[in-house]
Design brief:
The complex is a heterodimer of chains A (222) and B (219).
Chain A (H helix, E strand, L loop, with lengths): L5 H39 L5 H15 L3 H14 L6 H26 L3 H9 L4 H31 L11 H12 L3 H32 L4
Helix pairs in contact in A: 1-4, 1-6, 1-7, 1-8, 2-4, 3-4, 4-6, 6-8, 7-8
Chain B lengths: L1 H39 L4 H16 L2 H11 L9 H26 L3 H9 L4 H31 L11 H12 L2 H34 L5
Helix pairs in contact in B: 1-2, 1-4, 1-7, 1-8, 2-4, 3-4, 4-6, 5-6, 6-8, 7-8
């Protein structure tokens, strides 16, 4: 029944740690894509042209209400049907990046909406260009209220990377699965994966909470 | 069209399983959320501590890891669950941890005067919670619960990986025999979209209106 083998743990840990690197890389890369795309989505929804903002709005809604794992399969398998071969990493990054871009665009939108109207008017009266209005006035003020949401999704994307294992990205879950089926032992690999996730996500969440407080303090909020 | 005629029934069967999983997981998640949420508000160290550990573990690791762990590792402890049961238990326990924080936040959002008024009427703590605090807390937390239930529906797609024959599983199976990936996964995506925006969202709106009427509030 229940027998935890320490020597097995010792044997597989180096391999799991290497895979952890891939997991972290996937999360950071996906998040970088999501941050940029999300900003584009958020700004596109603010344009006055219904031909732009409507489809983007619908697209974001659609992505947010369907499972990420299905989107990963979609991106990975639909490409080859039309002659575009995507590597697991590329497909995974596109899917996870798009998914979190949709979430982040909502966070950005909330942040931008929370900037008082007077700031827009002041920028206009100083005849700042739209680009300068956004880059110097609006976005710096939109960041503190958006920070908590952004932090949650950074931890969220990290926890969703195991789904990339289904298309063969060799991150933690994939490695644990391979170890499990090579040795017919699942207790240690799966438990260790859970512990590694805890060991990274809990301190990260704590760090983000502290940083948020610092930013608020700096901006003179609360 | 030809495609839907051939595979439609399979998609429907898969969707029914997904709805069942969602329903059972939601019931479990709500139950856990209320219990763990109340425990988090308790002054007793043991209650508060165990709820906190539960919430941190389930929110700190991946749902997929939890699904695998419950299905593959629990049997080693002598607790073997059928895949269908393991599936909704994993999803329910995961989302229940997120829900517990909503319950806690909802209860804390009830104005202090309500607590004091109930105490002044010499209500017992249990009656106060049941009759005064919880109904108002419930009303405050309904909108985030709508989002959580959509997350839960999406979460059930992961049970396909332990071979529960839900919508996701059916889609993968049809894809592996036909390679009509765009059609297969496209149909599945649309079905998930319909379930979340066509079932969950309107249901939550209805519930919000119902609660508003019961509490005598104007929306």
């Amino acid at each position: 029944m229940f027998d935890w083998r320490w020597e097995f743990v010792g044997a597989i840990l180096p391999r799991l740690f290497r895979a952890t690197g891939n997991t972290v890389l996937a999360a950071l890369l996906g998040y970088a894509i999501a941050m940029v795309l999300g900003l584009i989505f958020a700004l596109a929804q603010r344009t006055r042209f219904p031909l732009v903002n409507r489809p983007i709005r619908e697209f974001v809604e659609f992505i947010r209400s369907t499972p990420l794992i299905l989107q990963i399969f979609f991106v990975f398998y639909v490409g080859p049907q039309f002659g575009v071969m995507l590597s697991p990493w590329t497909a995974g990054m596109i899917a996870i990046g798009l998914h979190y871009a949709s979430y982040l665009s909502e966070v950005y939108r909330g942040g931008i909406d929370s900037v008082p109207k007077g700031q827009w008017e002041a920028a206009k009266s100083l005849s700042l260009s739209p680009v300068r209005t956004y880059s110097r006035i609006i976005i710096p003020q939109a960041i503190p209220p958006a920070f908590a949401g952004m932090g949650n999704y950074l931890v969220g994307i990290f926890k969703d990377t195991p789904m990339l294992s289904v298309i063969g990205v060799t991150e933690l879950m994939h490695t644990a699965n391979s170890i499990g089926s090579e040795h017919y032992r699942f207790l240690e690999p799966y438990t260790l994966v859970g512990l590694i996730f805890l060991a990274i996500s809990l301190p990260t969440a704590g760090f983000l909470r502290k940083t948020e407080a610092k930013i608020r303090h700096k901006m003179g909020l609360r | 069209m030809e495609f839907l005629r051939t595979y439609g029934p399979q998609f429907i069967r898969g969707s029914v399983t997904t709805v069942e999983q969602t329903f059972l997981a939601a019931a479990l998640a709500i139950l856990i959320a209320v219990i763990a949420g109340l425990m988090r508000l308790s002054r007793k160290r043991l209650l508060y501590g165990s709820a906190t550990i539960y919430i941190e573990i389930f929110r700190g690791t991946s749902l997929l890891v939890q699904v695998y762990w419950i299905f593959f590792v629990l049997p080693l402890f002598g607790l073997t669950l059928e895949k269908f049961t393991a599936g909704f238990i994993a999803v329910g326990m995961n989302l229940g941890a997120y829900g517990a924080e909503l319950v806690r936040g909802g209860i804390l959002s009830v104005p202090k005067g309500q607590w004091e008024a109930a105490t002044a009427l010499s209500m017992s703590p249990a009656t106060r919670m049941r009759r005064i605090i919880f109904p108002q807390a419930l009303f405050n937390m309904l909108p985030p619960w709508g989002n959580l239930l959509i997350e839960l529906l999406k979460g059930t797609a992961l049970v396909a990986l332990i071979s529960v024959t839900d919508l996701m599983f059916v889609a993968r199976k049809i894809n592996s025999t036909t390679y009509l990936s765009a059609q297969v996964f496209g149909t599945a995506l649309i079905l998930y979209y319909l379930m979340s925006r066509g079932l969950i969202t309107p249901f939550m709106r209805w519930l919000e209106r119902l609660m508003a009427r019961k509490l005598g509030k104007m929306l």
